ECF RNA polymerase sigma factor SigR
Amino acid sequence: MERLPDKLRCALHLFYVEGYGIAEVAGILGCTEAAARTRLHRGRKKLAAELARLEAAGSAPASAHSTAADSNDPTDPAMQQTAY
């Protein structure tokens, strides 16, 4: 992840590691929710590409590959659960 640009890395960290929602990530980063979703999408794509490159070079285990392109994208508003 250290190879990702700061904007993308921060969005991914806040969402996946810290557990913030899209609105919270946007607030912390000072951007719109659409921009936060875009940063997450681009970050996942870049991370998946880097993992694929490392796997092809034999530097990363196949199990380390993320399903970033999965249709169950947690940043997709249709996939987000409503808190009750």
Notes: The helical segments are 6-17, 22-29, 33-56. Residues 19 and 54 are 27 Å apart (CA to CA).
